[in-house]
Amino acid sequence: MDTNTPPPSPHRDFPVVGMVGGGQLARMTHQAAIGLGQSLRVLAVKADEPAPLVTPDVVPGGPDLESLRALAVGCDAVTFDHEGVPQEHLRALVGDGVAVRPHPDALLHAQDKLVMRRRLSAMGLPVPAYAEVTTPSQVEDFAAEHGWPVVLKAARGGYDGRGVWFLRSPDSAEGAAAGAPVRDLVAELLAAGTPLLVEEAVEMFRELAAQVARSPFGQAAAWPVVETVQEGGQCVEVLAPAPGLSEERALEAQSIALRIAHELDVTGLLAVELFETAGGLVINELAMRPHNSGHWTIEGARTSQFEQHLRAVLDYPLGTTSMTAPVVVMANVLGAEKTPEMSVDERIHHLFARFPQVKVHMYGKGERPLRKVGHVNVLGADLTEARRTAVLAAHWLSTAEWEDGWSVHSGREVGDRT
Amino acid sequence: MDTNTPPPSPHRDFPVVGMVGGGQLARMTHQAAIGLGQSLRVLAVKADEPAPLVTPDVVPGGPDLESLRALAVGCDAVTFDHEGVPQEHLRALVGDGVAVRPHPDALLHAQDKLVMRRRLSAMGLPVPAYAEVTTPSQVEDFAAEHGWPVVLKAARGGYDGRGVWFLRSPDSAEGAAAGAPVRDLVAELLAAGTPLLVEEAVEMFRELAAQVARSPFGQAAAWPVVETVQEGGQCVEVLAPAPGLSEERALEAQSIALRIAHELDVTGLLAVELFETAGGLVINELAMRPHNSGHWTIEGARTSQFEQHLRAVLDYPLGTTSMTAPVVVMANVLGAEKTPEMSVDERIHHLFARFPQVKVHMYGKGERPLRKVGHVNVLGADLTEARRTAVLAAHWLSTAEWEDGWSVHSGREVGDRT
């Protein structure tokens, strides 16, 4: 957009960041932008998405080139709430002179798992054994070499466990096509044009995430490494810092993330999802945007991932990443199987009555089963206590039920006779 | 509004709070509303005020009854960014069934210093000697009894040192009418219809502020008492907690604030500005809204004044008020005498390069001399260090000058030869 005259910013002298997508990540980025004197501009399909509900600067549309170009006019940087943006459009924006951050060359590694695996392998980083799948028999060939179970993945477009199939044997495929023989499942996916790869199923103790930010200037900053607790392929809890992680392994995880950020020339945030195994760390996925594993930083770190992402894409010096409490636990609020009759407003009332210290982040979304509609952060000194509080709080907000049987009327545990 | 059908909230099931005024207090309240799943609705005269720059839900207008009614449609509560709203309009809203918080009966004490002084006196609380002024000679009569100097105040409409005249003798009046004899100044103000009171000039060590929140249910919560540092009648720094304040006196200040909140039936926030004198605490002013003395709470307390204000006016249970660090210092960023040539964006860059830990809150306002355009918060363990950092940072953002002579190019103090 160098050759166009941008419209004057309504925020005198303050930069404008445009974000592709109007979900909760954009919503919370706008919240951080306010402190920096800014107002986030978002490209959103619908007016009632989480971000357009709270920011006035909304460009309607999806990730088509025309909408992306409308978003970019007058922006100091364009960045992402999600990775689902075609590479050719991003390259057209770069050709227009737009500061696309991260650059499409970097973002490709968060969009395409096969490209990512190849690159990280070439860098000598620890990744699972993997192979591209282009014919129905290749999964079985791979398993013959590496053993069952294996994990089949769509190279592009998956998130929160979608696009991932855990395969125990040639005859049973869990997931989207449960019960179907593996060869049929693969044939069906290939026929639908889904690019596929297969990986060994890594035996692990737990999952970790290392999050860093990097600016175009090359400055980088790392938050403490966290443990992410998954259910059904979806993150439900984050424990910061990862409990019991040796300093050596924490440094290794941060070094891996910093090295990837540097070698791929990532600008903005990078989250590296890791498996902790008997043999050490293994890299699972990359994300180049604010990430669920960093939601704890809003109150839990001196600089939140959302503020840091803005600082990074604007090439501001980065903020301090130290923690604000010895222990921080994040728990996602997921839509319940059956939406409670009690309104979410009333649920928040009751939550605050029981736990005045819990920090609530609701996204303004309608509730659907397992949909991420908010999260809670709990700061403390004791992990067991913080975790118990966070899980109780998130479950209450989801279901209007206290998992421990606490009664709102007595203020006591059910069955407590003292 | 009980008889009207409100429009559906764009935030499903989340409450809507309307705020009269679109300044920085509304801006930061919106920022807090986002976490609670809400979006603040603001009544703002101009589209480029601090709050309308960042919230989509803007009702254009000032505090006239028609605009106030437009704001109130569909609101669960209506509250205030400033006190400049006529009582008769607020009473009309109450008559419409709007939840006006605080109620006009309470707010009156923050709008009218004479009403406030009479009420607090009647409660037996410590206030300066004072008298209403309705004829030009009454100031001298008051001084004859209590001694010079005295402080003349407009009973309504003053803020940030405006509407306050410090009078040393019958012949010299500082402030707006410097040099004019007192009797002429008083006659002029009375002729202009300004309601006046005169007070003894309290000899004090320093100024303190006690901030509390109270909900319609009657729950109240107090933050630690802070010291406010004033220049030219305007707050420039806040030190939390007030250094060297005895626990006894801190409790006394909190008790005063809690008692006022209770007896006046305040809902939302109450800030009590206090003088610390040889004889104990003396009450200066009241504010019933988020207040400059509470800006430190954004990062400095587990619940910020902005979140707490929303919780209080919505009758949510209140949040934990404990501090996030042993020491928190807030410094206001004031417009410089001469706006620097370096843009504010560039100033923020340089600030972050020197102080990555400073939290910046800019309001998106144009810079004019002494206008509050932002603030910084610094958390730490050592007051001297935190204060030095906050003051350097705020002065830099105002003027693009480092008061300590630090040089951006060397990264060292000027004259530092090591």
TrEMBL record, chains A, B:
Pathway: Purine metabolism; IMP biosynthesis via de novo pathway; 5-amino-1-(5-phospho-D-ribosyl)imidazole-4-carboxylate from 5-amino-1-(5-phospho-D-ribosyl)imidazole (N5-CAIR route): step 1/2. Catalyzes the ATP-dependent conversion of 5-aminoimidazole ribonucleotide (AIR) and HCO(3)(-) to N5-carboxyaminoimidazole ribonucleotide (N5-CAIR). Residues 117-314 form the ATP-grasp domain. Its EC number is 6.3.4.18. PROSITE patterns: ATP_GRASP. Pfam families: ATP-grasp, PurK_C, RS_preATP-grasp-like. Signal peptide: none annotated. This is N5-carboxyaminoimidazole ribonucleotide synthase. Homodimer. ATP binds at residues 113, 153, 199-202, 207, 284-285. Keywords: ATP-binding, Ligase, Nucleotide-binding, Purine biosynthesis. It catalyses: 5-amino-1-(5-phospho-beta-D-ribosyl)imidazole + hydrogencarbonate + ATP = 5-carboxyamino-1-(5-phospho-D-ribosyl)imidazole + ADP + phosphate + 2 H(+). The keyword Signal does not apply. Belongs to the PurK/PurT family. HAMAP family: PurK (MF_01928). The gene is purK.
